[in-house]
Amino acid sequence: MKLLLLIFIVQAVLQTIYLPASQGAVQPVAVRLIERTCKQTPLYNVCVSILKSDSRSSKADVTRLALIMVDALKAKATGTMNYIKTLLRGNLKGDVRRGLSSCADLYNAVLEADVPVAIEALQKGDPKFAEQAANDAGIEAKSCESSFSGYSPLTKSNKSLQDVSAVAAAIVKLLL
Amino acid sequence: MLESDPSRDFSKHEDPSIAVPCSYIPLPDGPHTRELASARRMPPKRAIFKVFSGVLILALVFAIIIGGRNSDVHANGNALLATSTSSMASEPLRPVSRGVSAGVSEKANHVFSGVEVASFPWNNTMLSWQRTAYHFQPEKNWMNDPNGPMFYKGWYHFFYQYNPHGPVWGDIVWGHAASKDLIHWLHLPLAMVPDQWYDLNGVWTGSATLLPDGRIIMLYTGSTNESVQVQNLAYPANLSDPLLVNWDKYSGNPVLRPPPGIDSKDFRDPTTAWYTSDGKWNIAIGSKVNKTGITLIYHTEDFKSYELLDGLLHAVPGTGMWECVDFYPVSKTSGKGLDTSANGPEVKHVFKTSLDNDKNDYYAIGTYDEKSGRWVPDNPKIGIELRYDYGIFYASKSFYDLHKGRRVLWGWIHESDSEIADVKKGWASVQSIPRTVLLDTKTGTNLLQWPVEEVDNLRLTSREFERVEVKAGSVVPLDIDAATQLDIFAEFELDKEALEMTAQTNVEFSCSTSGGAAERGALGPFGLLVLADDSLSEQTPVYFFIAKGIDGNLKTFFCADQTRSSEATDVNKQIYGSSVPVLKDEKLSVRLLVDHSIVEIFAQGGRTCITSRVYPTKAIYGAARLFLFNNATEATVTSSLKIWQMNSAFIRPFQPGQDA
């Protein structure tokens, strides 16, 4: 009985220490910054979930939150690009293949132009170029979706990228 | 059939419930105790305790494992608090007032929202047509702000923000070109590159000051190796080289660091210096505090050490960061430009800023009392109101041209197509044709801008049209040869009866929210269709729209409508424009410089200017046409025009044997 009580007390103490860590990412102050920042974006939930799940957001100012969002944009674009390449290796109908080729170009522009420009602009301190780059990424994703006359295999990916672009652009706008 | 959508893999990472693992059990009286109790047959109390502790130990193990993964969590709460208050202090406000300007909206390419956008299959023919014939642009890659314009030893010099590596912003250096006449430019080697710690992350915008003793001072912003914005001093390596090819950076750089209270990323774009009677040179630098745009003034005697003045030159709450500020005198009486240091009772001072958050240039006219160092706008209720240009025109910079005694203005004209098209064509941005700037002595409340007279030297053949009648609801083709490189001057008159008869309205017209040239009113729209094809499937209307106000007075608006400028859906399709003052007995007049993918438009002698980028897919090369149109319902319009074909300016790299 006493042993059980001892175990209980010890682990209760240890859990109190580790509880914030096990929750995952962020201290209360950082959470407030994230929530206030995300309220000024068009997609609060998308914004919050991306920022809260990145541990760097606990030490962030608005510039770094913007960089985290751009990183998320990069990750999504990379994943979609890889998926497009995989699909293109398969047996496809003419119009789907054409749409995917178009999308490959568009996502390439996102990865080769928009993302690097956004990162450099934020890091070096001329954020308006990051706003434009983030907006442009969303436009490329939208164009990709319009490249399919019928069924689009990328609807979810494109929508997701547009959402993150909109959020990233809105966060950058807070810096201007 | 597709098996899986990888976005489902993404969603795993986005799923908030996984982001916050919650695998430990809450303390006493949690649900598990009830479940487990019913499954066992041991003495209840012992069983409960044993199981309970076992579960808690398991939970502790989980917590340690997962906590270990997220070990870098212990933030410095105080630091976060400090930065969070400074960056989140207030809701972003709109600028204090924009008068009734009906200009571009804040967002960069807002027109795409809600519209079906597809990547247009641009081919090389269409893309190569877009390059301009007589506007300044480098041979390839990205350009932005004009820098350090000046005249020296017979040459106009122009520097610019340039990316030597690609058609998007980045890796910024100072490009350089020289010209005898502000039109025929010759490319020179790069003037400055990021080769010092204090400009390693960017050799950014700056201005030239020509000293009375013949020295040239170039002050520019450097983004240091730690991305702090500082001001640096540079000067020509050899003042006897009229082409000023090589530049030296002062060994004691930086000469200015961000002062206390100013963020290290809110301190850039120093102006040309002006001299005041206390024997000091003054420079202005834009910045912001929270969301209030401000301008700092510094005193200096040697351009190496500076003293920050107490007051601000100007400040407007809610406008965000002020970039590329400019401050210069204009004459109230003479039609000439003034040296930057001029002052006196016959002089007004113009303050100008580029607003980072809305990508437009704004100015205000006021009076500068150099004794107190205070500038007071003529209209103090409005913080900063008038725009140089109601289309695309940013980061503009003026200089005093001592060669011809005029103030000349440069403006950066970015692309309004998609970035992927810029990547395909390998370049992005042009500069405006340099414009003279004068106070409009007839109104007293705005500036007049007009292309420098040297652009007239590009005129080749001309055609004149006298009093062409354009009835309500009609389009008249103008028979000229080509229609992609033009200088057009047109005047318009409306029939008097229509002006009298037209009913009043109580709705204020605005170019940007109107239905464009297709929206018919009693007294407009009427004007020109540029870069149009025969079938008018592509057209860029440039037009006047006259509205009668509630008081019975006529108000004139001047707009450029991009909504049908191209069949491509991935280009900007906004309507630009503003009201334009038209004085009694003045005819309506407009000048257009058409140069492939740029159209610069000047209404009423330059009272209202609009610069537009146009990207037709069909109305290119020999298929481009020019029309007069009148979409009014009641008025007949009569127009007289003179149209010149424009030569190329043959902008090219400088050749030592040929050019000097």
From TrEMBL, chain A:
Keywords: Signal. InterPro entries: C/VIF1, Pectinesterase_inhib_dom. Pfam families: PMEI. GO terms for molecular function: enzyme inhibitor activity. The keyword ATP-binding does not apply. It comes from Carya illinoinensis (Pecan). Residues 1-15 form the signal peptide. This is Pectinesterase inhibitor domain-containing protein. The keyword Ligase does not apply. Residues 29-171 form the Pectinesterase inhibitor domain.
Automatic annotation (TrEMBL), chain B:
It catalyses: Hydrolysis of terminal non-reducing beta-D-fructofuranoside residues in beta-D-fructofuranosides. GO terms for molecular function: beta-fructofuranosidase activity. It holds the Pfam family INV_N. Pathway: Glycan biosynthesis; sucrose metabolism. Residues 454-645 form the Glycosyl hydrolase family 32 C-terminal domain. InterPro entries: Beta-fructofuranosidase_N, Fructan_Metab_Enzymes, Glyco_hydro_32, Glyco_hydro_32_AS, Glyco_hydro_32_C, Glyco_hydro_32_N. One of its GO terms (cellular component) is vacuolar lumen. Residues 23-127 form the Beta-fructofuranosidase N-terminal domain. Its EC number is 3.2.1.26. The chain crosses the membrane at residues 47-68. One of its GO terms (biological process) is carbohydrate metabolic process. Its main location: other. The keyword Nuclease does not apply. PANTHER family: BETA-FRUCTOFURANOSIDASE, INSOLUBLE ISOENZYME CWINV1-RELATED. This is beta-fructofuranosidase.
